[in-house]
Every structure is written in structure tokens, then in C-alpha cells.
Protein: DUF2809 domain-containing protein
Organism: Paenibacillus brasilensis
Amino acid sequence: MRSVRNSVGRRVNRAIQAKSRWKKRVVYLAAVLAAILLGLGSRVFSSRLPEFVASHFGDALWACMIYFGLRMLWIDRQLSVALWGSLLFCFAIEFSQMYQAPWINHIRATTLGGLVLGKGFLTADLIRYTVGIAISWGLDQGCQKLMGIHTRIDDDNSLKSSKLLK
């Protein structure tokens, strides 16, 4: 009888975890979409924005989108995985802009290719990406604390400390 209760308890626990993961993914998807809309808006309305915002926010928001996208994919991983993964991805894209072969420049000439791959290497972009990712990570940490998920940067077991599973 005890093993039946344990089995049922484990199934219920897994169902709660799965539902929690999907809710978190929806929240991160909303953050990705918000970053995309704000980033595109910073490009479209750049003439109406302060010069500092128009010059820097688009790249920082692109990096935010990458961070939240990685969090959406790796929902159960530690926050530092998304932090370092998004930095690595953004830096790799920026350094790839030093490569100027005709085939990749043709891709960069398209709207989507230009948004994803960029046009040319700028050291300032590395700073913008770092700031955007740091802000995203800080927001993520703060939101998790508000939700009662107590994680540290090196904590792999964020679901275990969630109020949903207690």
C-alpha cells in the first residue's frame, strides 16, 4: 500500500513540476517577445528617442532577448548557464562580424540576417551586450525571489526550493 501511495505521489509531483515548467516558459516567452518589440521599436523610432537610447538600447535588448530565450529553453538549469551562454552567444555573433565573405554578407544584407548577424564588428556592442545580459539576469533573480524560488547563482536545484513543491 505504501509503494502505491509513493508512486501516486511521485506522479503528482512530476505533473506539478511539468505544469510549473510550462508556466515559466510562457513567462520567458513573454520576456523574449517584449525584448523583440522594444528592440525593434528602438530602431523604428530612433529619431524620436534620446540619442543615448537610440544608440545603445537596441543591442542591449537583443542580448536580453538571447538571455530570456536561453532561460526559456533551459528552464531547470541554473541561472549562470543562461548568463554565460548568452554572453558566449552574443560575443560569438559579434566576433563573427569580422568575417566578411560574400556569402555571409549576402545573408547580412537581408532584414532578418542583419538583425541576427549584424553588419560589422564594434567593441561597444560587447559592452552593450554585457549590460543587457546583466540587467536581464538581475531581473530574473529578482523575479524568482518574488515568486519564492530561492536560487543562488550556483544552485542547480531551483525547483526543489520552489513553494509549488512544498
Observations:
- The radius of gyration is 20 Å.
- DSSP finds six helices and no strands in the chain.
